[in-house]
Batch of 2 targets.
Target 1
Amino acid sequence: MRVTALAGEVPAALASVLAARGLDPVRAEALAAGGAQVALLLEPLDDADALPLVREAGAAGVDCHTGDGWAVVVGTLARLGGLARGGGASRLPERLSAELGRFLSDRQEQPEAWRTARRSIPLARSCVVGILNVTPDSFSDGGRHFGPADALAGARAMREAGAAVLDVGGESTRPGAATPDEAEELRRVVPVVRALAAEIALPISVDTRRGRVAEAALAAGAEIVNDVSGLTHDPRMAGVVRDAGAGVVLMHMRGDPATMDAHATYGDVAVEVAAELAARRDRALEAGIARDAIVLDPGLGFAKRPEHNFAVLDRLASVTALGHPVMVGPSRKRFLGAASGAAVDRRDAATAAACVAARIRGARLFRVHDVAGAREALAVADAVLGA
Ligand code: HH2
């Protein structure tokens, strides 16, 4: 007899071993998915819930660690599903089993496409989002695409390089940047969106926190709203997105660009970012935005010190488990300089490396300045992951 370790992610390795041994591939994949090992933090938890949880977890073959007001359950998805469903003998309190069941079914979603106001963007392979800042002061490309003619030239180059989406922004959100007034932001963004929509034939996203700017950009041909405030800055924004049927990126940040650095304190950054994004997602759903229109973004560099950004990337599963496609925007940011020592104008290799790390941890959309470099690196990552 020979023992061979099944390399790689357990579900993928198990599915291919079972299929290679004659099992129907769909059944092999379903069986293998149930074998994935996950750990879930349940918090806050009162004693009335903790005691039955410990008992039922033991009966379901799930490990359970508890402390003051929290529990962590660890087991295969199949066993955690069994714990949530209960079956005849289970005595899990109703609220607990409902919440666990909802989480597990959301986690199962892992959508393969993103619905926007005009189409469905496939996400089986990595999707590169080209950054087109029509600002005089963005930290890396400020001034380069300021007028429609320069923006069009930049957009054509990004399309040639393999961008799947173009993200147009008229406000720099770097710490300390001056906020343009609404009329100025409209003047910067709308003519560029109109020119791109007429010529470029790629989905256009507008990077704004203002409902009126989003509305005007959507009317001019944009189909996605990328809101770094996660719909919290402008109370009109959720209605604008809903009424247009637009795709939306909900990004994590604390405070606003002027104050965010003072909010970069976390006990457990991955858990807190995922919980705060889940709350923003729930508010978007309550406002009537469709589930398959929502993409989540952990907001690299926003209210996060370098070590927070690396931890969020490594533990991105806390965000992907919410069941929405995940976007990351590491491009040329300070935390990459902290790891590589490279200056802002020499961070494209570090950006590509961060994109690949995020791809391996489950991200599907990558917001970058250097589209060609990210596309090339992600093509290799996609091939390794069998996309
Ligand atoms: N980062 C920036 C702006 N918008 N949107 C999303 N979804 N995710 C991000 O990480 C993100 C974003 C900041 O980068 P940049 O646009 O390059 O610079 P500036 O804000 O100075 O224009």
Target 2
Amino acid sequence: MGEISPSHRPQWNTHIGFLLAAIGSAIGLGNIWRFPYLCYKNGGGAFLIPYFLALLIIGIPFMILEIGIGHKMRGAAPTSFSKVNSKWEWLGWWQIIFVMFGIVLYYSVVISWCVNYFIFSFNLNWGPDPNNFFFTKFLALTKHPFEMGSIRAPLLFSLGVVWFLNWLIVFKGVEKGLERANKIFMPLLFVLILILVGWSLKLPGALSGLGVYLKPDFEKLRQVGVWIDAFSQIFFTLSLGFGIMIAYASYLPKKTQIVKDSVTISIVNCSFSLIAGVGVFCVLGYMAHKLSLPMDKVVSKSIGLAFVAFPKVISMLPVLAKVFGILFFSCLVIAGLSSSVSILEAFASGIIDKFGYPRKVVVSILSLLGFLGSLAFITQAGLFWIDIVDHFLTQYGLIIGGVLECVLIGWIYKASKLRMHILSCSKLSPLWDYLIKIVIPASLGIILINGLVKEVSSPYGEYPWLAIILIGGGWLIFTLFWTLIVTFRPSRYSVRQ
Ligand code: TRP
């Protein structure tokens, strides 16, 4: 009764359903607001060299590893890792715990801002000064991470909507929820982004914006920071080290072309980033043209781009400004949701694998905990918290998890053994073993050490040290604590034996 044998495991109904869900996880807010900025900052077109190199030597090989191990072990990250070596179950838990109770808590909050801005677009509610509107009226940001003020009511509502949607999609299961949602989300997202890019290409000044985005500055490639940005962006954008691809691959049928799928997911994701970048820079080019400012005065990244620069441009558009806003914020909401549901699934499947609880109960409790956890980020100091937690989890959590995953699969399990499994359906060169065993952990190690050196030389973002230690370090300890608790709880199956 309730035994999770491989034959009872849910499966994707169609192969394209799996691909779209994995692509949905990979394409997220990062593709729209982070990639274009990184590209601009790091030498424009020249940045594409380290970026595509990182895709080739880290992104695709690591994607093959995650899809391969999930497919072979037919389990979420903790189950898969414990089947490799029972002492390593904790690593799988830690990855999904810090993504679920770290990254996704604030990621959902950012999606909820997009929901608010989607609604604001109908009346261009941000008015003539979007900067002031965002920080003072919308977030009512305080001056200090510990001056938390109160919970922002408008955010509470949209956050509820986001967690409700997360819950609904995952609650309905792999085939009826995730697969169906992504089959609607992904084509819609592609159509919307193409409309937006086509539209922005026609704006006056667009082409000069595009020139600035892609003009190669090969000198920049001499800087280590540029390479580090490329390698860490590839890791984050492909959702690697999140335990997500492992869980998604565990629902694949036996005969699957793992290499081909990994290449497809990675390339579609990175092409999406490039195309989104075209749209973003055409729009910024238009703004520079309208305000007669040089491009470097109008370019901004992430939150500033989506919630300040874009609203400003939207209000300036001569025709259908509101429609542009509605389409843009819909893109962000869709891209965000298809990523956030993927970790909810990865976590739920870990719990279901180990304890055998019913999916609907697990997903409901997790979504409720997620919603409550997100409340920490919708106070008036929420933006500071998001910034600090994001920095620690993406700079350290993901990277440390990735290195350990390479050690576990490359050395303890043996990369060659996993390659033999993959070879049953796909071709894969033995060179892959070296990438997994040496090149990837070494590159991630360099990123990590470089980050640590910067960290001790000056506190991140000029926040007080105390805030960094309490919020960033506190989050790390909190996730490790829960990792130990879940790891050491007996599995329902081991109790029975
Ligand atoms: N790849 C996503 C991006 O580029 C990030 C992401 C994927 C993510 N899955 C996630 C973030 C789950 C939070 C939770 O934006």
